[in-house]
Amino acid sequence: MYQTIALLTRLQQAQGRGPVLLRRALGKPAPLLLPGAALALQTLLRGQTAMIRHNMAELLPAEGRTAAEQQAYVSTCVSGFYRHAARTLYELLAAETLLPSRRVDIRLEGEHHLAEALKQGKGAILYAPHTGNFFYGYWHLSRTYPSLTVATASDPELAPLYRSFQRLGCPGLDYDKTPPMQLVRKLRHHLEGGGVLLLLGDFYRPGFPRARLLGRATRLPAGAAKLGLELGTPVVPARCVREADHTHRFVMEEPVQLRERFGPGEQADAAAFLNLLLEQQLLKNPEQWFYWFNAHERFAGGSRREGE
After folding, report:
1. Which contiguous run of DSSP H or E holds residue 126?
2. Please, which residues have CB within 8 angstroms of residue 82's CB and are 6 or more apart in sequence?
3. Is 255 left (phi over 0), alpha (psi -120 to 50) or beta?
4. SS (H, E, C) 213-253
5. Cβ atoms within 10 Å of 50's Cβ, excluding its own
6. Which of 5, 74, 172, 253 has the most crowded CB, counting CB atoms within 10 A?
7. What is the pLDDT of residues 287-307, one digit of tens each?
8. What secondary structure letter does DSSP report for 200?
9. Bridge partners (DSSP) listed for residue 220
């Protein structure tokens, strides 16, 4: 998937007839949202389909379904993954055209939960998985609230997309280029000023604390638990959801006050609790989770970083 994104972004920025045609196509209303878009992407990623299906079969809970029903459910999710991924790739490549044109419908759902959290005067942490078009969700959020997020703009495949959203006015800190202490200070300062911090909690690095997600051991960041306990900042479970072509919801649910549940020395327990909420958000729209193509790596304990 990363290689496909890199190929498309390089092609988009290159010279020649092919790149010119691609840029013209991206200026048209949804050229990749035709019925064949998902099939085209699946053909492009033909070597990864078996692994995506395997990852879903291994990690998606059966929830009372028979073996045959679970197999059919997995097949539906695989198809849904490609439909969503094809549309998201188009939207990301065309972001600087689509978003200013107002041809995209992005709604904040459960905004009263965010307002409730902000009333406490300690900012708010939105804790979400990489589902839906999270780029678009964050762009819309940042139009209304003083927002900040943490990203990995140094990854060569994704860097052009992050630069595009920076040009669109989306503030963010680069996890790899910002010294750790400086990163924490900036996040703390933003929250103390009443800002909204979006943290995508399913980000993986082998050096992160041990955690569990989808019933498997992995490693996930613990920054939301750390800041929530230290500052008393409410954590709002959230997710981005694609409803239809160019139609998205950024869903926010009831805020959680970690200090009411955990003591100062219980950060690991607080992080485990937040990861459970993260999993619940992911499973509400599992076919839209970005990482199905490499989920086996993050649960196998490999040393590969996101974006490599």
Report:
1. strand 124-128
2. 38, 39, 41, 42
3. beta
4. ECCEEEECCCHHHHHHHHHCCCEEEEEEEEEECCEEEEEEC
5. 10
6. 74
7. 999 999 999 999 865 433 344
8. E
9. none
Overall domain count for the chain: 2
Each residue's pLDDT tens digit, 32-82: 455 566 666 666 667 788 999 999 999 999 989 999 999 999 999 999 999
- More confident site: 260 or 85: 260
Return the percentage of the chain with pLDDT > 90, whole number.
62
pLDDT attached to residue 91: 86
CA–CA separation, 25 vs 27, rounded Å? 5
Please name which of 49, 130, 139, 129 lies closest in space to residue 94, comparing C-alpha atoms. 139
Looking at residue 296, its amino acid is: H
* Rounded Cα distance, 151 and 176, in Å: 8
> What is the distance between the alpha carbons of residues 251 and 128, in angstroms, rounded to a whole number?
10
Residue that finishes a domain, picked among 76, 98, 120: 98
Express each pLDDT in 252-266 by its tens digit.
999 999 999 999 899
CB 231 within 8 A of CB 123: yes
Residues, the chain, total? Answer: 308
Instruction: State whether 86 and 197 are in the same domain.
Output: no
Structure tokens at 52: 């995506």
pLDDT at residue 185 is higher than 70: yes
**DSSP annotation of 256:** B
Range of the domain at 9: 2-98
109 and 236 share one domain? yes
Last residue of a domain, one of 98, 132, 148: 98
Question: How confident is the model over 195-212, as pLDDT tens digits?
Answer: 999 999 999 999 999 999
> CB–CB of 93/9 below 8 Å?
yes
pTM of the model: 0.87
Domain check: are 164 and 62 in the same one?
Answer: no
